[in-house]
Structure formats: C-alpha cells, structure tokens
Amino acid sequence: MKDNKERLSINIAKLYYESDYSQQKIAEKLNISRPTVSRLLQYAKDQKFVQINIIDPIKDNSNLEQLLIEKYGLEDVKIAYTPLDTREEIKKSISAKAAEYLYSITKDGDIIGVSWGLTIYNLALNLKPKMLKGAQCQGSCQ
C-alpha cells in the first residue's frame, strides 16, 4: 500500500512540476479528486521526493558581505534574507543561515560550544548531519 502511495505521489509530482499539469487536470487524468492530488503533492514534499529550490538573484548578498568585511575588518559576514519582515520569518532566516554557515566551517577536530537561547534552538533545528573525526561539543550538547 505504501509503495503504491509513494509511486502515485511521485507520478503526480512529475506531472505537476515537470509537465506543468494543473492539479485539476491531473485529477481528471487519474480519475481522483483534486484534494487528493494536493495531499499527494504534499506527501511527495514531506517524503523528500520533491525538493523545491528557488534561485533568487536578489538574495545574492556577496557584494554587500564583501563590503562589510572590508569596511569593518571582519573575517567573514553572512547576510540572511527574509521575504517577510516579521519576527518569526527573521528568526527562521537567521537560524537557517547560521546553520548553513556552521556546516560549511566545521572540520575534523573542532570543538563546538553551545549555549541556551531561542536563536541557538532554531539554529539546531536547521542543522544538517556532518560526519567529523574528533569533533567535540562543549556545553549542553545532550
């Protein structure tokens, strides 16, 4: 049963994202309801069968980051962009950018210090696993 659901969700995702069929047209072609198509598209995203990557040329802040590095003599700068100016969206954007940066700079043998706080919590939610040799955690790691 699960294999059928997975296969159907993948087929629907291909029709929707690759063939540009509307949800209604998919429903008609497969003789299922439009809400079922919508649920299966969401299932495909939840199962990571579909991963959406938005390329936003405005989001490229590398020039501004470089200007800040030069002006203030900083080692590195990362700018987090958010589509909405709300506390929740800003927190999500900063946390995701911090997790991405932490992933990019950690290497074998590093010691990572951890503190408490909502920002650190949200950063942790965005971390990706990375196998490192000899890495250590300092603070409340468990």
From TrEMBL:
SUPFAM superfamilies: NagB/RpiA/CoA transferase-like (SSF100950), Sigma3 and sigma4 domains of RNA polymerase sigma factors (SSF88659)
Keywords (A to Z) from UniProt: DNA-binding, Homeobox, Transcription, Transcription regulation
Recorded superkingdom: Bacteria
GO molecular function, a single term: carbohydrate binding
Record-annotated Sugar-binding domain positions: 57-135
Coiled-coil regions, chain positions: none
Record keyword Membrane present: no
InterPro entries xrefs: NagB/RpiA_transferase-like, RNA_pol_sigma_r3/r4-like, SorC_transcr_regulators, Sugar-bd_dom_put
Family under the similarity heading: Belongs to the SorC transcriptional regulatory family.
Name used for this protein in its record: Homeodomain-like domain-containing protein
